[in-house]
Write a structure and sequence with these properties.
The structure is a single chain. By secondary structure, this protein is mostly helical. The protein has one domain: ABC transporter involved in vitamin B12 uptake, BtuC (Orthogonal Bundle), CATH 1.10.3470. 77% of the residues lie in helices and 1% in strands. It contains 13 helices and two strands. The chain has a two-stranded antiparallel ribbon. Strand 1 and strand 2 form a beta hairpin. Helix 2 packs antiparallel against helix 10 and helix 3 packs parallel to helix 5. The longest helix has 37 residues. It is globular and about 55 Å long.
Length: 324
Amino acid sequence: MTDSRIIESMKEKRNTGKFIRTWGTLMGFILLFVIFTIIRPDVFPSGRNIRNIIEQVATLAIVASGVTVVMVTGDFDLSVGAIASLVGIVCAMLMEAGINTPVSIFIALLLGTAAGFINGVLVAYGGLSAFVSTLATMTAFGGLSLLLSRGTTIFGLPENFRFLGQGSLGFIPFSVILMVIVLVVVYLMLEQTTYGRRLYAIGGNEEASFLSGINTKKVRLAAFCLSGFFAAVGGVVLTSRLYSAHPQAGSPFMLNAAAAVFLGMTAFRDGEANLWGTLLGVLIMGVMGNGLNILGINTYVQSILTGVIIIMAVLLSSLAKKKA
């Protein structure tokens, strides 16, 4: 084989590898969808079921959008589930105390943002690792939720609060409309603003970003505030959807949001957190959960599969970074 053919062969392999790293996760999603369609053609691909999947993943997509912002910088947020639960409890307690719904929601969102601020201060200014600090705050926020609610579920919420999680505009669920708004806002922020470029710069090389004049501490602090805010939005919508508040209702967000973002890091960009990748990860989680429920697979097996997916996603994103 001549040198030119060897070079061409190497280029073809690199191009093939890049194509797989960019589009492989999307092809996996399509394959997963096709498999469930073949197994249960009478139920899974129906318009009603597709609508259910999108409605079910809407809240997760909102929370995962905030986690994506944090992970773009190379940080991590384990506390989103606990923040969502705490926000739901506080929102419900405020309404139960007679405060009107919009004011209760506003206060709850401020609380979620404040929780994110605490995370940001600990990580950006306190010098703690994101994993350790958000693990600690996750435990604290979870304990506070149990303390405030006394470990019980809060019922009897106002009827007008139900609309956020259960209402619709025409045939489109309001939670899905809210998800689309969040996705558009976060996308524009990440891709079209100076702040978004600074987030990616810090994620690429924090020291170089600092030396170039970026206030890395403020940027990272703002990222955690956004993560807390979107976790709070997710917590409010979830509380409305359940029409009750439970101190651990948001706990699944932590694992599922992480899985979605890590899956997204294997799509479209080599080993880098990105919003559309996260959305694809959310859809994979939703399709898999819905399909397994239709097949009658119990939740314990689903949890095992979620853990396996996270491991695979982390490995793939790690490999992608090495080959990039």
